[in-house]
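explain this chain.
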Amino acid sequence: MSRLLRPANLYLLLSYALLSCMPFAGRLLGVPGAGDGSAWQLLGAGLFAWIAAWALCKRPAWFHWALLPAFLALPTELYLLIYYGQGISTHHLGIIAETSPSEALEFLGGKAWLLGAVLAGVLLWFGSTWMVAWRTRDLDWDDRSRWLVLAALGACAAVLAYGQKFGYAQSNGARKATPVTALAGSWPVLPAWARPPVDLDLFARSWPFGLAARGVDFYKERVYLAELNRRSAAFRFHAKQAGDGHGPQVVVVVLGESSRFDRWSLNGYERETNPLLSKEDKLVMLKDVITPVSATRLSVPVIISRKPAMQSLKDGFSEKSFLSAFKEAGFKTFWISNQVSFGKFDTPVSVFAQEADEVQFLNLGGFSGASNLDAVLLEPLRRAIDDPSHKVLVVLHTLGSHWNYAHRYPPEFDRWQPSLKSIAKPDYTNPRIEPQMNNSYDSAILYTDWFLSRVIGELKETGLPASLLYVADHGQTLYDKSCKIAFHGHNTQYEFHVPAFVWYSDGYAERFPAKVEQLQRHRDARLSTENMFHTLLDMADIRYPGESLDRSFVNPAFTRHKRYVDSYGWTDYDDAKMRGDCREVIANGKPLKRQ
């Protein structure tokens, strides 16, 4: 025992203990919902992993390098807990995989040097513990008990493998999700008491070895995304337009980016950020639309497919989007994007985009100053709506108000001063540039107003029954009053409450007067981006088996549904309180567990 208490050995063991305590950092930092009652299970899972590693490797030197990812991930875990209220997830790993180095540096802003210093310190910490692990032989596990533990581990692994293959009995004697071989009776299921006390999801939350489970989960989701187009190839909505009298029609969907509800003058903002759209008499603002999650890669799939809000944190979805439903109903479909594509099937959004008949990604400059303005979408839009097929669906994915806000509009729209255009390399993490940030943000909204007005103008010129749905993917927090955070990915009302509207032509009103009536009736309804898929198909009078007309706000069958947002778990937005000047969405009670 005296050898174990040597300073070097204590340093190593305390370092391991510190890594193991990371699952409880959220509780120490006061993150809402972090105390979910699984402390003993987390401790048990972590202890089991340590025992297994030590037994298999005999001495720390042989498994210490496997801990390097945990050392490197520790600063990121703490950062995400402090600023975003959640630890590293497959979603964050996806953002890293889909983000270019230049965008990552722009996102970090003035904290890039701090990150470098922290990583240098962590590497020094790792190196010093490695030297101790390599030199000491005091921590070797070389007695007979190690072989007993290895035998027990082997038995546990065999039972686990068997249970995964053939299933377990429920406490009432029923079987649980057993494969065909077990159902055929060739192999019996295991009794209920043999089921592991910890599932993979809980083990993934443990440190440090649980990080490997997160990495495996991320790898599986990337493989799933890569194969999703092939997997869903046979999926059909069996959609068709109701009746036989439908002629030419144009439907346009504009996916906004980082646009905030209360910065639109159409929603009561004191600055006139919507001077052109305010002149449109057939434009219906939707006053209460929320997005379940404030990240583009997760929010857009909920808009364009039937993916439930509480599955939005998962990359893939087994169904296709409304693009395929429109195609089945005889529409030619277009996806025209000013966002960046990292490949055809490598992001949750681009996988759906490839369903369109024609796909164009026009942004070759990332999100930097070299990127195109959203006006680049107008000429492809003209060609699409002039297509001889006459029945056309066009999705325009804009850059909207994506950071850097000053890069989203030309100089003539730089209305409010001082702006970010006067700063060579603005750092959004610096609260001192709050006036410039807000002024440029409002100018970006002003440019969005101009762009959307031009889109409506193009639709008017067709003379066809036409409709346009605009909805933003998420909003922004902008150092509001005493709030010390900006950008998105947080849990604030400013990011969940998004602007949305529907515009319709005279021809559309003549063909679908009942739908226009219902649209006007539900303009103040409590809506979610989950409603958009169902409403778009209903707007075009497209029917399909299993449709949910109660989710369409242009239908008399529309009914309210619970609106969940990802705020420290799945929180009922309409039964939550807004905390402080950041207006954090806090559940009245315990949020539902993230899936």
